[in-house]
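thread: overnight batch results

M.L. [08:02]
morning all. the overnight job finished for the chain we discussed friday. pasting input first so we're all looking at the same thing
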Amino acid sequence: MRAGWTSLVLAAAFAAAGPARAAADGLPTLDPTNGLFGTAYDFVMPGAGASMDPAAGNAVVSWGGNVWIYQAGSPVLEAYILLDTNRDGSTDRTMTCDGVVGSGRFALHCYDDDGLGNFELLLRGKVVVQPNGTITLRRATGRGYDDAQVYTFGFQASQQVP
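M.L. [08:03]
and the structure it wrote out:
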């Protein structure tokens, strides 16, 4: 009988605790076009790569480029990163991203395998709405990997103003 009572108490406690995770609220909206045209952001991404080959050296990276974000009235978003790995102004890789935004935070999972090898990134950070209404993605950090390196990096992006 005691085991049944314990189960009942535990079940009541879990029911009172509510859901394990609350849903993201989608705010602030990262795409004021509501998914129609997307919103462009310029970004910088400094970081470091640790080689998975003991004979190869580690890397210091300073990537940049643009990210286009499409968010249509929900917390879920799609994005495309035009990555410039050598900072010459040309896109070296195009990454597809899935993400979410809520409570002033964002997260993106980006991936690419365009024949140059698999490349994945996971970003998360803070969304800040500036007094002039533009949006910045700040204090973002991430991790990633390709076929030869494991990366850690920072990420900052500012909304392009038309």
